[in-house]
Amino acid sequence: MQGLAHQLIAGIATGGIYASVALALVMIYQSTHHLNFAQGEMATFSTYIALTLIQAGLPYWVAFAATLVISFGIGVFTERILLRPMHNASVLANVGVFIGLLLVFRNAMGWMFEYTIKSFPSPFESDTPLLGGLVSGHELGSTAVTLVVLGLVFVFFRYTKLGLAMRAAAFNASSSKLVGIRVGWMLALGWGLAATIGAIAGMMIAPVVFLEPNMMLGILLYAFAGALLGGIDNPGGAVIGGFAVGVIENLGGAYLVGTELKLTLALVIIICVLLVKPSGLFGRVVQSRV
């Protein structure tokens, strides 16, 4: 029973990471109707920046805050310089750009930071068992950080003028322009916010899986499964889906398929959702007249 409880709590902790990345994916999808295949590489690049700042002597939380600012700038720059010209391009052209962006970030990390596996510090390490030994200090701390971030994002989009403007621009760009909303900049800010959320996820997962250029490859797949499960057009649903995938992954890996085949569970979830309910559990079915 204690083993089951540990797997459940650990699943919630990792599910929070998946929920964050899933939210970042949905934010960009709502605005562009494209999936950012480079989301994981952007998060990993930000984590390398954080490690560089920490090794330079900055306290962890100072480096954490500085990384979020830099990541936001990278996201805005990426949208305005690289993706803005592709606004009216075909779906295939946009997919090519996203894959190219993935390769650029991955190879840039190998060139700048090398391909060797690096350890990343955690500010939540504890020598004493927590909750009767069911959870580690890092799992508890990273879950708290994730919940705070998700709460702040909810408040931002629900109760601030800028957040409401970004939601309006994502929902109906044409009508938003008529009321004076600068849709182009709302999209750029959305990219910046998605990059920031991804950076937080990267810094929270790096102490567990270690830091290397392919660190977020499997995590992005789990996050994509969570986004599809909850609804690719529903931010709240994607968050719930991310937590659900984390729990399914841990319990399934421990009691069903083994740790070596845990990644197949994400593929099974993706296939089942696409076959049974493509809109996800909380997504909406869009009907259009021809």
From TrEMBL:
Keywords: Amino-acid transport, Cell membrane, Membrane, Transmembrane, Transmembrane helix, Transport. It comes from the Bacteria. One of its GO terms (biological process) is amino acid transport. The keyword Transmembrane helix applies. It is a multi-pass membrane protein. One of its GO terms (cellular component) is plasma membrane. PANTHER family: ABC TRANSPORTER PERMEASE PROTEIN, BRANCHED-CHAIN AMINO ACID TRANSPORT SYSTEM PERMEASE PROTEIN LIVH. Belongs to the binding-protein-dependent transport system permease family. LivHM subfamily. This is Branched-chain amino acid ABC transporter permease. It comes from Neoroseomonas lacus.
